[in-house]
Amino acid sequence: LNLLLSVILFGLGIGLISFLLLLNTQLKEKFDKNLAEIDLVVGAKGSPLQLILCSMYHIDNPTGNIKISTAAPLLRPLHPLIKTAIPLSLGDNYKSYRIVGTNHDILGLYSAELSEGNVWKADFEVTIGYNVAKEAGLKPGDKFVSSHGFEDDPDLSHDHAAFVVTGILKETGAVIDQLILTNTASIWKVHEHHEEGHEEEEGHTHDHAGDHDGHTHDNSNEDLLNHPDEEITSVLIQYKNRTNFQALNFGRNINENTDMQAASPAIEINRLYSMIGIGTDAIQWLAIIIAFVSALSIFISLFRSMRERRYELALIRVMGAGRVTLFTLIILEGILLALIGFAFGMIISHGGMEVMAGYLKSGFRYSFTGMKFLQEEWILLGVSLFLGFVAAVIPAVQAAKTDINKTLSGN
Question: Rounded distance, CA 28 to CA 33, Å?
């Protein structure tokens, strides 16, 4: 029982280390892949990290909206610093998948390609990501009605024309897999209908004049500039030259001289890494301590077991086994115990990651897996076997030195 407890403790320590490696590796892959060479995100004043998480990773709420008249300098073509400016308009969902009003440049940002159908062109046409099509069961030609906000709530469904799926994107492994893409005007129309519904409930009429009805908008930034009083959520920016001195100060100038906020993805994600890292480092050190204490426990168990089995060991010597054979047997026993502990730890870590992946997918729509094996786990195996060897060395030496005569005579 003592030996079993030692093996379980060893497995828990190894399993915890493996679990942290799996989680950190996959989190970093998701964060790095979704950086998509975006240099700056511009949106409403608030938390810069919240702006990044909302606009790039789609796991937080917007800091607010900005008027197109305010963001116009960023959206105009031939800007001396900006290579690409991609507007985003958020606020609606379908089955918790976010509907994003944007332009076609977002496809190039994530190297997304069509698997079937076409990209959206007219109002209320959408192109959906791979995960959306897979989980929501949508295909080209299907229609659906969106809900207000980012949670799927039938009570918040909009009363407007249905969106029509025109195309499905191939799997990229990036955040675009879980987005529903349309033009910005469709988002405006949805919310105009939403506001009109509220005002009619209060006994007011809504003047719905304007060029949003009966008009098909294109997907260019030039079209957005024709609607200066409308709002968008944020703008994703890529620089023409990252080393340009003006580009380096561009974000600071926006923060100091405008009503908008500019956030650098690289800076904010590194800040997030450092915040998460403090907790994961502490847990990792705890796991290492557990592993070493359990290795010590294995040593104590083997040492005690060796003393209890001294008659057996002496009989093995009598039957012709040499000191080297006894030494090897005890060493193999220590290594085998470590191997069993390692296998138990792998089952715990990968099984736990697979269970957690389900919660992460339902909560954040990101795909994680426990079926992924890392190169670092081979190092972990080597460390485990080494600890098993070290734990068995002293008991093995004691076994090899067993005095046959004294042991069998009971002295």
Answer: 8
Which pair of structure tokens corresponds to residue 151?
């949670």
Are the C-beta atoms of residues 49 and 268 closer than 8 Å to each other?
yes
Q: pLDDT digit string (tens) for 342-364?
A: 999 999 999 999 998 888 777 66
pLDDT, residue 115, reads 94
Phi/psi for 114 (5° steps) reads -75, 135
CA distance 81 to 242: 9
Among 237, 267, 251, 243, which Cα is nearest to 38's? Answer: 237
Strands 97-102 and 179-183: parallel
- d(Cα 75, Cα 85) in Å, to the nearest integer? 6
DSSP per position, 28-55: HHHHHHTTTT--EEEEESS-HHHHHIII
- Tell me which amino acid residue 3 is: L
Q: How many CA atoms within 13 Å lie on the side-chain side of 10? A: 33
In angstroms, the Cα distances linking 51 to 30, 56, 65, 217 are 17, 8, 11, 27
> How does the average pLDDT of the chain come out, rounded?
84
Tokens 């991609």 correspond to what residue?
86
> What's the pTM value of the predicted model, to 2 decimals?
0.76
Q: Which residues pair with 100 in a beta bridge?
A: 181
Residue 387, both tokens: 């600890």
Q: Single out the residue of 21, 20, 16, 29 nearest to residue 367, CA to CA.
A: 29
With tokens 């090899």, the residue in question is 400
Which residues are paired to 260 by β-bridges? 44
Tokens of 51: 């702006």
For 220, other C-beta atoms within 10 Å of its C-beta total: 14
**What does the alpha-carbon distance between residue 298 and residue 10 come to, in Å, rounded to a whole number?**
9
Rounded distance, CA 252 to CA 264, Å? 10
pLDDT of residue 199: 45
Do the beta carbons of residue 29 and residue 57 sit within 8 Å?
no
